[in-house]
Structure formats: structure tokens, C-alpha cells
Amino acid sequence: MTGTSIFAWALVVLNAAMVAVLLRLSIKLRWHLPWLPLLAAFFALRAGRRMSAALSENYLTGGRGDLAIDATLALVLIPMVIGAERMARSLEAVRDEAEFRAQEYERARRHYTQVVRHRVLNPVTIICGGAETIKAGIVDEPTRDQLCDAIVASAREIQQVSLEPERRGDEEYELDAIPRTQ
User: Fold this and answer.
1) pLDDT, tens digit, 9 for 90 and up, residues 8-39
2) By C-alpha distance, which of 33, 29, 35 is closest to 92?
3) DSSP 90-135
4) CA dist., res. 95 & res. 2, Å (int)
5) CA atoms within 13 A of residue 118's CA, in its CB half-sphere
6) Residue 149 scores a pLDDT above 90
7) Stronger pLDDT, 84 or 157, i.e. the higher one
8) Which of 13, 71, 126, 180 could link 154 by a cystine bridge, Cβ 3.0 to 4.6 Å?
9) How many C-beta atoms lie closer than 10 Å to residue 63's C-beta?
């Protein structure tokens, strides 16, 4: 094997590697850069042409300028692809962080809604039910007094309710309305 044939096979491998890297990068970037697969197709054609030239031992197909073009393209594009790969990894990390924060915010919002419902709607339900029963006039005097006491106690409970998201009682123990960080 001569130096020229080794160089020709090295260019085949280089072109094939560029195809693999560009396609992998396209997948990581979710096909948002349509020129990457086109560039990969170009390198696939170059690799096929180089391979047929190397197999036929016609190493200089297209002249020395063709070899120089392959080498120059590789030297220029390899740092660009490495930079794009790093960018794709950082974009993926940012996307994962944003997705985590969105899910965590939604979970905390649901828990906060449950806390507010428990702390406000329960007393309001007692107030409404007691008032409707008294208004209907179907209760005796001691029951009416009990309902009035329950209405007053529930109204005072609402006056003093804290809507802060920290955990309060046993019934709210499972709820955590503060978003967690990763």
C-alpha cells in the first residue's frame, strides 16, 4: 500500500465519519437544521466516490485538487461539527431543565390549589349548609344554635386562614406547594 492509497482510504473513512456525525447531530437537534442531512448526503457521495477510486486504485480521480477539497472540507467542518455537538448537548440540557421546571410548577400549582380548597372551601361549605338549613326552618332551637355556632366558627376560621403554601396539618401532609429545584 502506498502513501497515496493510505491517504485515499483515510479520506473514505473521514467522509464516512462525517456522515455519521452529521446524522447523529441532526437527530440530536431534532432535524431543525435541514442543511445537516444535506451535508451528510454530500459526504456520503464523497465517501462513495473515494471508495470506488481507492478500490480501482485510481487514487487521483478528479485530480489532486479533489483530494485537497476533501482534506480542506474535513479540516474546516470537524471543528464546526464539534462545536455544534456541544451546542446540541447544552440545548438538550436547557430543554430538560425547562421541562422539569414546567412539570414541577404544575405539580406545585395543583398542590397549592388543594391547600386553598381545603382551607377555604371546607369552612365555606359549613357556612352555606348551616345557613340553608336554618333558612329552611326545619330545625329545633338547640340544633339551630349549634348551626349558628358552626357558622360563626367557620367564618372566624376563614378570617384567620393562612394561604401560605407551607404544610400545616395532618390532612395536608402529602401536599407540597413549593416547587423543588433539580
Assistant:
1) 777 778 778 778 877 877 787 777 777 778 87
2) 29
3) HHHHHHHHHHHHHHHHHHHHHHHHHHHIIIIIHHHHHHHHHHHHHH
4) 49
5) 19
6) yes
7) 157
8) 126
9) 9
